[in-house]
Protein: Dissimilatory sulfite reductase (Desulfoviridin) alpha/beta subunit
Amino acid sequence: MHTSSHTPDSPHSSHASGHGPCAGLRITVCRGAEHCPHCAVQAPHLADALREALDPAHIAARLAERLGETPKPHHTLRIAISHCPNGCSQPQIVDLGLIGAAVPALDADACSGCGACVETCRENALVIHDGRVTAIDRERCLSCGECATACPSDALTIERTGLRVLVGGKLGRHPRLGEQLPGIFDVQTIPRVATALIDTYLAHMARGERLGDTVTRLGIAPFAQAAHSAAVDAPCR
Ligand code: SF4
Ligand code: SF4
Ligand code: SF4
Structure:
């Protein structure tokens, strides 16, 4: 459902679950796909592309096969899409979290030292020398892209947009945050990547195990390998 009343804190979802039978898949999307000024990546059709690639009914059938019984509502796999690092759809606590990224690039010679980017960056990720920006601290940078928007001289620009992928987040009795795979994934690779991640989960899940528990048991490596193979183009920063 898309309405103009969504605030950044009121993401909307398809295939509501929690009551009734397992829906197979639930996708929650922040309002950035429509009209949020913080949007770091343009991916308005990503939820539809995921739904088409993953087929919720097929996932429900595969879950039933793996479980040996009718899956319950809590077996529904959850994907959350946030179009920027603000994470309004709570991508950290679902099976697959997708976070929009706009990776900045710096042409230090073009910096006039106006300071607009430094005021904008909430992560203190811009390295200053003699009043001018000389580097971007990639450990701190969340790839929100807002410094490039603020820069009046094109010293900071966006070199790439895509999504970060978090795997295995959940709430419940033993909550855990999703683990981030290395790199930024192009939008068009995400349906393949999500398919590979869910295939990996369904191939390895112990009986009744949530995806986050499988990641805890196996480690993130098999999931990262599956995702990067599916993306074909090696993700990079
Ligand atoms: S996650 Fe970012 S783009 Fe999406 S609604 Fe929140 S602030 Fe806007
Ligand atoms: S992209 Fe965002 S977090 Fe990274 S340096 Fe720019 S403003 Fe800071
Ligand atoms: S906004 Fe641009 S020109 Fe101004 S200090 Fe930052 S990088 Fe330099």
Summary: The first strand starts at residue 12 and ends at 14. The chain has a mean pLDDT of 90. The pocket of iron/sulfur cluster (ligand 3) is lined by residues 111-117, 133, 150-151, 153, 155-156 (CB under 6 Å). The chain has two domains: 12-91+162-231, 104-158.
